[in-house]
């Protein structure tokens, strides 16, 4: 029982240190834990928190799903046909290290300042990650499964549905979880630059319009918590029985 | 993977070149066809690249970005690797620190900018701090899981031969975990590169990220924007390739089955 | 098989794995391919099954040249052959999608019984032991009524007790539902216990060293003089094969 409390105790210790550090420097701009908590309350009261969280989640959902719908089938195909991989891999490798945020000027040019821009940026961030995940998942299918599929004379659509997809599913789910994390990082950053709502915007706005650092840190804490929740939600998906087979094998 | 005949060596160059050529053609003709006044055509991007190369600013920007990556990543590695190893080795430590890490990790490094500016002012330091944050978490996670994934057989063998705990960690566990740690470092380096560019778009006034944003803001020079993006991509790729070469050094290679 | 040769190219070097293999197999026969590790037995099996094409020569079944894998000739792999995302029933029913629901259920039930996996119909392979997984693979293979069954060291990953039991099971199944079986192994006892004819392959590049006919009736007494005699003969021939 005591062991379980260790992380909690540690967090409490950190909070205390934080509070002390702040209190011992009066006139300090940064808030202490208590102020941050009040900041969160403040945001909740004004309905801003909910509004911004919804805005951020909305963009993440759209960007993420669009990227998944396109990148996964594309990635599976490219991974499967060696010539396709030869054709596209160099291009992918060059585009991948370009931060999604570097696309902001283009995003604004094409979509203006607003939701679409943010969704586009999230799409870019998720697209390459999912593409590579799908490609690698196909590579990692043990040859045995493919040979069995061929042996039983499956037609190509049947093969894709009954062998390929189940075989790659566990790896895809892990990739989806990691990519969702990326999406969450991108949306916050994108909102700090290119949009006028959302949690990222909250941080920038709170600072610009009045140095409300209590709201800044409050925003950061909320971002961290929601990101964590998203991750946990995806992990529980990994536990679904028909996907679980993939994990003991690893 | 496909059951079709094995591809010839020349095809390794043919297909990507063909695809690139097609892409450039599509790009070129879309620009003409939509008669856009702002979006650059491949030719203007090429000219932009040349223009940038001649301007001293480009090289200074590249060096700035690389410097921040080097510092931030280096710090993250120096602090993160021992920390991660400890977390993997002592489950009690992991239990204590993990929840905090899990909460801090999903906070985009960019979101730390206001806080970073308070601590470090404007300039190099906040950007380096952001890079540090971006690289720190993946490194810690990779080290921790690298250590905990070392088969207990190895640890037991170490103890069998009379090694003390720190010796086992250094002489058995660390080499065993090294392949995974290197992969984590490589990924963290990639993230560092992404973060530095993003950070430079907000918090600093030099570097490749700044070049991207500045080219747009001062004159809508989209040709330079795209040129800068390509440079960012190529350098990022180069970093990745170089690191992969490090992974290939033979004494480390045992962990990778071809 | 007619003068089958197989040459692999790797890193610019040609490695000749199979050299001039010619063999006739009768319907319903149980043939064992025996040879030292790495000699190319699995390659030969894959060529027979149509998963690899010969560099020269051909494989014909009932007069028809083999072009590729076919459900009439199912290969049972040494390990990881069953699909981990399907239950026992799902695996056995894998090749039966063209049947009606009722027929499929019936066939699945029949083969579950045959390989003695009753009670595990809804279990996943991760809940099964190694021997059970191999039995599942055999059931899946038999369910589609193939003409030929290829087995690539199917018991190689199992412990010796299980292997012994599995041999008995395989013979029992074979005698109930007779097919042509081609069985690859490096275990001499296994070959003599199971096969009608044993084909001895030399080390790489593999040629047919010898063909031994096992003329003992099933069930074979493993202590009978004839059994031991044949076993020693085979051991001798393999001894030659090792030094070839």
| Biggest beta sheet summary of chain A | none
Run of helices and strands of chain A: HHHHHHHHHHHH
Helicity of chain A, as a percent range: over 70%
Largest sheet of chain B: none
SS-derived structural category of chain B: mainly alpha
Residue-averaged pLDDT of chain A, rounded? Answer: 87
Morphology of chain A: globular
- The residue ranges of chain B in which pLDDT falls below 50 over 5 or more consecutive positions are none
Describe the protein in words.
The complex is a heterotrimer of chains A (250), B (258) and C (244). Chain A is an all-alpha fold and 250 residues long. Chain A has a single domain, classed as MetI-like (MetI-like fold), CATH 1.10.3720. Helix content of chain A is 82%, strand content 0%. Chain A is built from 12 helices and no strands. The longest helix of chain A is centred in the last third of the chain and has 38 residues, at 156-193. In chain B, 39% of the residues are buried. Helices cover 35% and strands 23% of the residues of chain C. A 6-stranded mixed β-sheet of chain C has the order 7-8-9-3-10-11, with helices on both faces. A 3-stranded antiparallel β-sheet of chain C has the order 2-1-4, with helices on one face. Chain C is globular, with a radius of gyration of 18 Å. The model of chain C has no long low-confidence stretch (mean pLDDT 85). Chains in contact: A-B, A-C. At the A-B interface, helix 1, helix 4, helix 5, helix 8 and helix 9 of A face helix 1, helix 4, helix 5, helix 8 and helix 9 of B.
Entry keywords:
heterotrimer, A: 250 residues, mainly alpha, MetI-like fold, 12 helices, B: 258 residues, 11 helices, 80% helix, globular
Task: Give me a quick take on this structure.
The complex is a heterotrimer of chains A (250), B (258) and C (244). By secondary structure, chain A is mainly alpha-helical.
What's the layout of helices and strands?
The complex is a heterotrimer of chains A (250), B (258) and C (244).
Chain A: H1 2-23, H2 33-45, H3 48-80, H4 82-95, H5 104-111, H6 115-139, H7 143-151, H8 156-193, H9 199-208, H10 213-238, H11 241-244, H12 246-249
Helix pairs in contact in A: 2-10, 3-4, 3-6, 3-8, 3-9, 5-6, 6-8, 7-8, 8-9, 8-10, 9-10
Chain B: H1 11-34, H2 42-54, H3 56-89, H4 91-104, H5 113-120, H6 124-148, H7 152-160, H8 165-202, H9 208-217, H10 222-248, H11 250-253
Chain C: E1 2-10, E2 13-21, E3 30-34, H1 41-49, E4 56-58, E5 60-61, E6 64-65, E7 73-76, H2 88-92, H3 101-114, H4 130-143, E8 148-152, H5 160-176, E9 180-185, H6 188-194, E10 197-201, E11 208-213, H7 225-243
Parallel strand pairs in C: 3-9, 3-10, 7-8, 8-9
Antiparallel strand pairs in C: 1-2, 1-4, 5-6, 10-11
């Amino acid at each position: 029982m005591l062991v379980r409390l260790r992380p909690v105790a540690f967090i409490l210790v950190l909070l205390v240190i934080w509070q002390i550090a702040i209190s011992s420097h009066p006139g300090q701009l940064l808030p202490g834990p208590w102020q941050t908590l009040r900041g969160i309350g403040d945001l909740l009261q004004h309905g801003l928190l909910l509004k911004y969280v919804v805005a951020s989640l909305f963009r993440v959902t759209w960007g993420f799903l669009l990227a998944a719908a396109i990148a996964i089938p594309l990635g599976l195909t490219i991974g499967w046909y060696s010539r396709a991989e030869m054709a596209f891999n160099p291009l992918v490798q060059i585009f991948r290290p370009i931060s999604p945020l570097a696309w902001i000027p283009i995003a604004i040019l094409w979509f203006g300042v607003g939701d679409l821009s943010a969704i586009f940026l999230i799409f870019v961030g998720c697209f390459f990650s999912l593409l590579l995940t799908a490609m690698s998942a196909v590579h990692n299918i043990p040859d045995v499964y493919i040979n069995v599929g061929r042996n039983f004379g499956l037609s190509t659509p049947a093969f894709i549905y009954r062998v390929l997809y189940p075989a790659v599913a566990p790896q895809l789910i892990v990739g989806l979880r990691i990519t969702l994390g990326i999406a969450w990082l991108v949306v916050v950053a994108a909102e700090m630059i290119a949009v006028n709502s959302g949690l990222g915007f909250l941080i920038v706005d709170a600072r610009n319009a009045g140095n409300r650092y209590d709201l800044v840190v409050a925003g950061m804490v909320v971002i961290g918590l929601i990101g964590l929740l998203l991750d946990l939600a995806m992990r529980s998906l990994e536990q679904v029985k028909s996907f679980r087979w993939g994990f003991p094998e690893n | 993977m496909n059951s079709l005949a094995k591809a010839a060596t020349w095809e390794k160059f043919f297909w990507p070149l063909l695809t690139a050529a097609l892409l450039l053609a599509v790009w070129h003709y879309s620009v003409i066809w939509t008669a856009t006044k702002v979006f650059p055509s491949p030719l203007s991007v090429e000219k932009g690249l040349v223009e940038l190369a001649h301007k001293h600013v480009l090289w200074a920007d590249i060096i700035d970005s690389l410097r921040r990556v080097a510092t931030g990543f280096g710090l993250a590695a120096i602090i993160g690797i021992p920390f991660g190893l400890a977390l993997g080795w002592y489950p009690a430590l992991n239990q204590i620190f993990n929840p905090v890490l899990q909460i801090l990790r999903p906070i985009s490094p960019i979101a730390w900018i206001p806080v970073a500016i308070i601590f470090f002012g404007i300039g190099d330091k906040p950007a380096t701090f952001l890079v540090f944050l971006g690289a720190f978490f993946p490194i810690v996670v990779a080290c921790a899981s690298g250590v905990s994934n070392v088969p207990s057989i190895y640890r037991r063998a170490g103890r069998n031969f009379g090694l003390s705990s720190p010796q086992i960690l250094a002489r058995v566990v660390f080499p065993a975990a090294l392949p995974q740690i290197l992969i984590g470092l490589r990924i963290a380096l990639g993230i560092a590169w992404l973060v530095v560019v993003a950070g430079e778009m907000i918090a600093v006034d030099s570097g490749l990220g700044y070049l991207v944003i500045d080219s747009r803001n001062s004159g809508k020079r989209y040709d330079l924007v795209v040129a800068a993006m390509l440079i960012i991509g190529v350098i990022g790729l180069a970093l990745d390739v170089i690191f992969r070469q490090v992974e290939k050094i033979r004494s480390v290679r045992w962990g990778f089955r071809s | 098989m007619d003068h089958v040769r197989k040459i692999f190219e790797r890193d610019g070097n040609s490695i000749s794995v199979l050299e001039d293999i010619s063999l006739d197999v009768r319907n319903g026969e149980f043939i064992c391919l025996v040879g030292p590790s790495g000699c190319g037995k699995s390659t030969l099996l894959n060529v027979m099954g149509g998963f690899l094409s010969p560099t020269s020569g051909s494989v014909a079944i009932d007069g028809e040249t083999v072009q590729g894998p076919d459900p009439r000739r199912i290969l049972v792999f040494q390990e990881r052959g069953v699909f981990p995302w399907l239950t026992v029933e799902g695996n056995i029913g894998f090749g039966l999608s063209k049947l009606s629901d009722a027929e499929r259920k019936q066939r699945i039930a029949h083969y579950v019984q045959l390989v003695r996996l009753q009670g595990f119909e809804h279990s996943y392979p991760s809940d099964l032991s190694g021997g059970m997984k191999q039995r599942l693979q055999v059931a899946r293979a038999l369910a589609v009524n193939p003409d030929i069954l290829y087995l690539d060291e199917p018991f190689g990953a199992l412990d010796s007790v299980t292997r012994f039991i599995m041999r008995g099971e395989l013979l029992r199944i074979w005698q109930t539902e007779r097919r042509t079986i081609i069985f690859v192994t490096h275990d001499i006892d296994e070959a003599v216990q199971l096969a009608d004819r044993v084909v001895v392959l030399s080390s790489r590049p593999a040629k047919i060293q010898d063909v031994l006919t096992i003329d003992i009736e099933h069930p074979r007494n493993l202590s009978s003089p004839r059994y031991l005699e044949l076993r020693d003969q085979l051991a001798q021939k393999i001894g030659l094969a090792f030094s070839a």
